[in-house]
């Protein structure tokens, strides 16, 4: 994939998560529905948990645009943890597909980003050992 296209992709993903972070801190209703303080409470979490999730999303958004494999890997793995929680929350709460399509989509995207940016010195963990004679 051309470098310019991947840069645009990282910036797009970063902007999506930055927008998500801002909406977590927004005090009232958002363009995505009710305030996240209400959503988190409805899901069974304390309303302050939205600040933790928003901070993780915001930090990861910044790390995604830094052109370094390690920072992008760290961003992707952080978001994989957050998004796994989001997908689980949507499943447990029986949210409609219309409300919950984004979390699994971005979870898959972050899985790809993590694999693409896997640090070179850790790749041996994935290689099959060569048998010695």
From TrEMBL:
Protein's membrane topology: Multi-pass membrane protein
Residues that span the membrane, as ranges: 48-66, 73-92, 98-118
Record's GO cellular component terms: membrane
Main location group: membrane
Keyword Transmembrane helix: yes
Keyword Acetylation: no
Name of the featured protein: DoxX family protein
């Amino acid at each position: 994939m051309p470098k310019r296209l991947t840069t645009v992709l990282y910036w797009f993903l970063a902007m999506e998560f930055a927008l998500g972070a801002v909406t977590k801190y927004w005090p009232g209703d958002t363009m995505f529905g009710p305030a996240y303080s209400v959503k988190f409470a409805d899901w069974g979490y304390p309303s302050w948990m939205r600040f933790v999730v928003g901070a993780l999303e915001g930090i990861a958004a910044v790390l995604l645009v830094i052109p370094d494999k390690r920072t992008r890997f760290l961003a992707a793995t952080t978001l994989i943890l957050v998004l796994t929680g989001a997908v689980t929350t949507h499943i447990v709460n029986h949210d409609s597909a219309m409300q919950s399509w984004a979390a699994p989509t971005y979870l898959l995207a972050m899985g790809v980003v993590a694999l693409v940016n896997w640090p070179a010195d850790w790749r041996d963990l994935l290689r099959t050992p060569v048998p010695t004679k």
